[in-house]
Amino acid sequence: MTPADDPSRSAPLEDLTAALVTCRRCPRLVEWREQVAVDKRRSFQDEEYWGRPVPGFGDPDARLIVIGLAPAAHGANRTGRMFTGDRSGEWLYRALYRAGFANRPTSTGRGDGLRLGGAWVTAPVRCAPPANRPTPAERDACAAWFRAELALLPEARVFLCLGTFAYQSLWRALAASGENLPRPRPPFGHGVEISLPGAISVLLSYHPSQQNTFTGRLTEDMLDAVMDRAAVLVAG
To answer: Which domains can be identified in the chain, with CATH numbers?
Structure first.
């Protein structure tokens, strides 16, 4: 039995999830996520929406942590799994599969058979925000969940931040945990790699949002290059 197959290894994360999915700290986000779950997109009218905070997903012994922004209203807010049910997730899970972190290239919903090996997918904000834009107060209200989750992933060695919001949120979480971080914080840029004490690496990538992928700002080759570098760092 591998560590990822051992239920006892994921129990603390399951406890965190049980508490997280009941969170109602941010009235605006609670109202929006629940409204979207009732006023469904026409193409998903027959589906039951998750409509709650979305927990992280993956291998409890992950050495790679992939960090996004927040659940999409008709993506993870519908399916209950991070980066699942929208175009961004299609790009991400294909890249994870090609780099050897996933057993299949698609993520359609909980119970679809997808498994991650050595990787964990999460976001600093757990509820779908209107226009995909959480406020600073909402980000800060969710920060405790993010920090608690990272603390329960002790094997993490590589953090892949998809977008500036993810990078800034991770930096705050690492600072709060007492990490010795360089000052000033290195500027965001696609493909940037930052080495931290304790053999920790932070990799930066553009977010695979349609705004970036439709315009060609981010290509699959660009995302693969960052993901392949993450695989090298994890193996090392």
So the answer is: 3-235 (3.40.470.10)
What type of residue sits at position 39? D
**CB neighbours (10 Å) of residue 4?**
16
pLDDT in tens, 44-100: 999 999 999 999 999 999 999 999 999 999 999 999 999 999 999 999 999 999 999
Q: What is the number of residues in the chain?
A: 236
Distances (CA, A) of 122 to 47, 65, 214: 23, 7, 23
**DSSP H or E segment with residue 233:** helix 220-235
What's the CA angle centered on 85, arms 214 and 78, to 5 degrees?
130
> For helices 136-151 and 7-20, what crossing angle results, to 10°?
160
Q: 145-179, pLDDT tens digit by residue?
A: 999 999 999 999 999 999 999 999 999 999 999 99
Predicted TM-score (pTM) of this structure: 0.95
